[in-house]
Amino acid sequence: MNKYPFQQAPWWKLGTIYQIYPYSFSDTTGNGMGDLEGIIKRLDYLNDGTPDSLGVDAIWLSPFYPSPKADFGYDVSDYLDVDPELGSLETFDRLVDEAHRRGIRVIIDFVPNHTSEEHTWFKESHSSLDNPRRDWYIWRDPTPDGGPPNNWGSHFGGSAWEWDESTGQYYFHQFLKEQPDLNWRNPEVVWAMKDVLIFWLERGVDGFRMDVVGMIYKHPEMPDQPLDPNAPDDLRPNDIYGRQLHIYDQDQDEVYEMVREFNQLVRPYGEICLIGEILYFGADRWLRYYGTEGDGFHLPMQLQFMHLPWEADTIKSAVQEIESLLPAHAWPSCVLGNHDEVRLATRYGQEYTRLAAMLQLTVRGTPILYYGDEIGLENGVIDDDKIQDPWGIIVGPEFNRDCCRTPMQWDAGPQAGFSTSVPWLPISADAGERNVANQDGDQFSLLNFYRSLIWHRRGSEALRNSTLEILEGPPGCLVFERQVDAERAWIALNFNGNEVEIPFSGEGEIILSTHNQDIINLSTGSLTIEAYEGVIVSCR
Ligand code: GLC
To answer: CA–CA distance from 195 to each of 191, 202, 219, 240, 511 (Å)?
Structure first.
């Protein structure tokens, strides 16, 4: 009997998801910042129903809500509106309609752990000790010597507590002091945040990516956290967060319960996809987010890949681990880039971008792509005195995330076709060369390779929805097979800088190669593939 239920798989299992960082995708107002209208304008690029487009099945939009932008959208001051710089609710509704007309689902970011300090909830909470919303956030008295209530560090450096002179208490923030944490132990907060989900579900969204959701509940007593004996020695002095073991500030039992409640809440709205951003503190804590028999997150994101050395053996072990750990009801995902990490092309090198794309789109699970990776966008170069990302400013330039958020490069014209004025982050120097228009016209470009991969995947049950078996291969190669019923795909990825011979048994033909090898027939023997080459063979 097959371990996986192949029939009637929901769209989020079969499809490819594409993350858009709205501030940096396409600007139609000329203010140097992307907007929702810009996304509408580019929908045909994403999927116009033909292989001339990328062919993605869903977009995930990073926050577009009103925000003072202390953390560039992840500090929300109103969950029920659109930032006027990016559009309006009317534009959002049109975006959903236009996306749906093209068969593209819309997933939005939900930021449950913290609001902006500018949110009216926090302004009220902050106003006095007896304000009815005081307990919507986490307030504590100082210790007898006036210090913060515990030793917890903020993700963005320094203590997680901010002293409030006017009411004589500290409030808690796991990120910036401008991002106070909500108190999910207050049922009114839970109701208010569930109302937010319903508001957007009623507007037709198809899913939520839940930001640092594992952090919403803290241990009720908030005890001091122990130091991590394995913490690196070279951490910056204010990186308290990096020195601690995170056992009380996230992945508490109540979070898993709440994820179950989210799952219940979205069920009446159809095939809604719940994606969890889970910071990875071990397989057991992470796996629990799937719930039992599909009552948790559909896709607790697999962010692990991005932090592994880019070597065949390490990647192979990670794939193997996922295959052996996941219960039958759980479905993997594969993320190789996002708005918090070094760009894929910079992390691995341009010579590896096609191999990475092939891995991401052929391994079992839902691929979540990041805008610009399809043209090999590299990390932007930002001078230290120009850094805008608070993490880069407070802790150090090595944490600066501006570099992976630079504007999309559409053409060789002014501002790379992104905007008519100077963009909020600089356009990269290679934009004249590396852009969508150039790659569109070059049949061997990375963009056209992504298109071929995605469209090929769309037509192949073996690649979308089947088992995965790792096969023996030469050193430095990852070889695996995907199979469903009579359909079998054989994938070989060569991470080596030299050509290798890979044994192959059976009959088949190469249907896609990173190196544009001609379609060739194969029969038992071996196949020679080039340095950094990957191939997909359809087996007979
Ligand atoms: C998540 C987001 C990141 C943000 C943080 C705080 O990790 O991906 O961009 O800064 O949460 O909301």
So the answer is: 6, 10, 25, 35, 48
Question: What's the Cα-to-Cα distance from 64 to each of 76, 92, 98, 112, 403, rounded to whole Å?
Answer: 9, 9, 17, 15, 20
Pick the atom of ligand 1 nearest to 113's CA.
12
| Domain final residue pick, 235, 251, 267 | 251
Q: Is 110 in the pocket of ligand 1 (CB under 6 A)?
A: no
What pLDDT digit, counting tens, does each position of 315-370 carry? Answer: 999 999 999 999 999 999 999 999 999 999 999 999 999 999 999 999 999 999 99
109 assigned to active site:
no
The whole-angstrom separation of Cα 205 and Cα 393 is 35
Q: Quick one: 36 and 142 in the same domain?
A: no
Q: Contact at 8 Å (CB) between 44 and 102?
A: yes
Q: What is the CATH number of the domain that holds 107?
A: 3.20.20.80
Q: What is the pTM of this model?
A: 0.97
Nearest alpha carbon, ligand 1 atom 5: 74
What domain range includes position 157?
A: 116-183+220-251
| Any atom of ligand 1 within 6 Å of the Cβ of 340 | yes
Domain count of the chain? 3
CA of 443 to the centre of ligand 1 (A): 37
Q: Using a 6 Å cutoff on CB, does residue 288 contact ligand 1? A: no
Atom 2 in ligand 1: residue holding the nearest Cα: 211
pLDDT for position 353: 98
The predicted structure's pLDDT at residue 1 = 35
**Is residue 19 a part of any domain in this protein?**
yes
3-state secondary structure of 325: helix
d(CA 243, CA 228): 6
Q: Whose CA is nearest to atom 4 of ligand 1?
A: 74
Cβ–ligand 1 distance for 339 under 6 Å, the answer: yes
Q: Catalytic site residue 206?
A: no
pLDDT tens profile 259-276: 999 999 999 999 999 999
Domain boundary among 251, 268, 293: 251
Whether pLDDT at 30 is above 90:
yes
